[in-house]
């Protein structure tokens, strides 16, 4: 079996270009491993590959999910594993690329097989948040699963909602599922690379990239997305840059303030991503260059040891 190549890293670190270089070197196909790039309607603001990128090598799981849906890690792993099998069958190399740590964790270490959540339980959680606010949600999460709640910051409403909906739907704590885990890929089936640039140059690139997104039409993209009238708690509604630009479109802040907020949120997210990959995957190969040519040279050195 051809090994899978996993390429992880923070936002704006050059993952798209590196994945293309790897795909061309390994006769590969690219599978998206970013939880926001799976959604349709936001190709600019989520920095999906361009049409030119798509024309160079086959890409999968980009912009393919209705933003009105909630795609879980389970949905993604099921789709990704089917694609990996298909790509292997055609004698090519699957290359998984993205910044969503849980996706890579599921593939290489395993995640708990939590049952599907019914619509009634999910609606109960939405109603709870509306009635009691973040404080009430936090209290309920701590009551249902103090172990999992202790690991989550008070501002992380989505993960608290997950604790509560699992508790309501299954009658069990989310953390109780974690004992039954296994990796989706065996250790000899994959190799991993983390792009780990210096922090300040990455922050500078994040700031500049958001300005380029606006020049390319990101505000109009978010305006069209807002017209869908989707629940603001849906994952796609919380993609980096979307909430502040929507606030600007509602007249709640200037465009300048919205841009500053989006850039700040992106920098903070990148910091969390780098911490995650440093802690969860310390043994993966590292690429440090933000320059595409430099990163490609580092990649070449890593691929020199690629199994024949």
What is the strand and helix layout of this fold?
Elements: E1 4-8, H1 15-26, E2 28-32, H2 51-56, E3 59-60, H3 73-89, E4 93-98, H4 101-108, H5 119-144, H6 146-149, H7 157-170, E5 190-195, H8 199-216, H9 218-226, H10 242-249, H11 255-280, E6 285-287, H12 292-303
Parallel strand pairs: 1-4, 1-5, 2-3, 2-4, 5-6
Protein architecture, described:
- It is built from 12 helices and 6 strands.
- By secondary structure, the protein is an alpha/beta fold.
Mean pLDDT: 92
The N- to C-terminal Cα distance equals: 11 Å
Helix-strand pattern: EHEHEHEHHHHEHHHHEH
Structural class, please? alpha/beta
Query: Helix count, per DSSP?
Result: 12
Task: Summarize the biggest pleated sheet.
Answer: 6 strands, parallel
Round the Cα radius of gyration to an integer and report it.
20 Å
Shape: globular
Helix content: 40-55%
Largest beta sheet: strand ordering: 3-2-4-1-5-6
Unreliable stretches covering 5 or more consecutive residues: none
According to DSSP, the number of beta strands is: 6
Proportion of strand residues = 5-15%
